[in-house]
Every structure is written in C-alpha cells, then in structure tokens.
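Example record for the data management plan.
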Amino acid sequence: MQTNNVVKIVSFALVFPLLALACGLFVPRSPSPLPTEVQSAPALPTQASLPPAPAAPRSVNPADEQLYIDLYNRVNPAVVNITVYIMDGETVVPLSEGSGFVFDTLGNIVTNAHVIHGADQIDVAFSDGTILPADISGEDLHSDLAVVNVGELPGGVNPLPLGDIANVQVGESVIAIGNPFGWGGTLTRGIVSALGRTIPALTTFSIPQSIQTDAAINPGNSGGPLINLDGQVIGVNAQIQTSQTLSPSNSGVGFAIPVSIVSRVVPALIQDGRMTWPWLGVRGHALDPRSAEAMQLPFTRAAYLSEIIGNGPAADAGLRGTSGSATIDDREVETGGDVITAIDGQPINSFDDLLVYIALNGAPGKIVTVTVYRDGNYEDIQLKLEARPETVN
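Corresponding structural encoding:
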C-alpha cells in the first residue's frame, strides 16, 4: 500500500487518501430515535412432501468454537460503547459513537482520540446495561489515543491485559469486539494480515508499527480492542481502508494502533493528560536500490534522508538531505542525502525502523547517536532530540 519512495516525517508524516477512520459513526442530531427493528426476509413456501434434509457436516471444530465463546464471555464485560454529545445551542445532542476498553481498576478506559475529540459530554455503556458519565483524562492526536475515566467500575468488570508486540505474528488469529454501526458487544474474528504498517495520525505525523487485520472493523469499532486468543490486547482498532466510491465499511483491510504505542501513551495520558513525543526533524524513505547504485553504496538497506527540517535536531547536528539526482534504468532517483545505517548501535534497515526507534526509545532532550554513510565513510553523529511540534511545513 506504500512504496519505498513515500516520504514520511520522523516521527511520522504520511498521507493515505483511502484510509478512513473506523469510527465515523455519527448519530442523528434529531431527537427522533433510530429504528430498533430489523426486517426479516420473507419465508419460502414449505413443501411438506419432501423429507427433511440431512444435517450438513460441521466445518468448525467444536473445541475451536468453545474457545471463541469462552474468550468473548471473558473479554466482553471490559469492552464499552462510547457515545459523544455536543452542545447544539442550549441543548446537548448526540454526535457520534465508538468503542473502548477498560485499562485499569481506577476506571480508566482507552479509546481513540478521534472518537472523543471535541466532546462536551461522554456516556460509557457497559455490557450489563450500566451507563456512566465519563471525563476526558487526556488525548493524543499524534497517536490517535485517548483515555476517559468513569470512576468506579461496575461489578464483575476487570481490566484487559496488554500483550507484547514482539510476540504478535502474521497469520495468528485475533478478534475485535466493539460497537459497529451502533450494535454493541459485536465480535468479529480474523487474522493478523501484516505487521509494521505506518498509518496516518490526526496530525501531520504518522503512527508506526501498526497492525493490519482482516477481522471486520466498521464505523463504530474505533477505540475497541484487537485481542489475541490469550485475551490480551495487541492493538486499538482505528482505521479501515475503503473505496472513495463505495460505502465506507469493511473491505478486509483494517488497522489497529499497536500495543507498543498504547503501552507508552496511555500511562502518560493518565498521569499528565498529554504525551510529549520526541522529534528528529527529517523526511525520508527506505533506501532505493537504484539510489544505492547511483551513490555507489556498499549496501542496499538503510534509511535515506530526503530532507532536513529547518531548526530541527537533525539540522542542528548537520545531517544532510538530497542534493542531486541520477537516472538508473531510466528512473530518476535521489542522491546526495545522508544514509542512516544505525542509531545507538541498533541496525536501521528502513526508514520505518528509524520511526519506530525514535517513537519507542526516544524522549525530548535525549542524546542519540546516528551512524550515517557519507562520502564513502561511516560517521557517528550525536544529536539531541526535541519535543515534536504540532505541525511541520
């Protein structure tokens, strides 16, 4: 879905025109209630003379079915529906709905920032029918994560444990539980389709290490958990890829904010109400093999720096961006930019590796050492990370 030549900002600028926020479930401002009945299909005429059809063989192992049943019963009480209200004149009206999950015993609930951003009032509904008002503890537009607090939890509701992104594998089974189209407590299942995706945030930066899944995610699922078969949260469902010409619903390509980002951002939101991200101040992409050939590099995997942002940490340290171009195999490629092969001794094989390292290991004020290949030599350059600005030109 992205090529090696897509330009991104550390950490993290990207635009995906076909990615839609999975929340997007807006409820009418009119006081008229939504329809509450589903029309059933007409029954076919019976044919009493025909013998009953033999039962079809089961295609699902009953043990597997029971696993999902038990998992749902264990997890669902901690998954909530979130309704956002805003002031319309002198009246509070519902605006949108989303999902969330209980993070701790103090009543903190994780959801997406785009679910609750701009809310005047928030209601949180639990699976037992309990509805509690919630206050916003904090939100982070850079990671599209937010925390709301309901105070004391209903009886029998326990927080969901977080998994480890290092243990997540492509092909493993996962479930999503949430509030698609307003239907609370809905379970869908699928697999981890891919790892290491970079998806857009609500700012000019992006979210690295995201999880792609084919578990059905639809409007209203935003903020709900993506869960492995051990009942651990491995991501927060946030986005779907859809067609601009078709209905913005599931097409088998959904994205979840990874647990690695969740475990870093959520505690900061609970404690400080905000998350301060580090910033390197470069744009770049994975090294193009043709650029490597044009620059006569002894390797083909690294992070190539296309542009150095003025007044940023990289600019202050003297890192260099593209200064020329060359034509290789009838293709024009960038040349002259620094090529980062390691940071703090950790190998860097792509620009995404750089994004992930800065996001998960960096902090404003921290000194990092980047190893660059420049003019035929390796150089170690130290620079001090800064707090990420709200926008970058």
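Summary line stored alongside the record: Residues 277-387 form a domain with the Pdz3 Domain fold (CATH 2.30.42.10).
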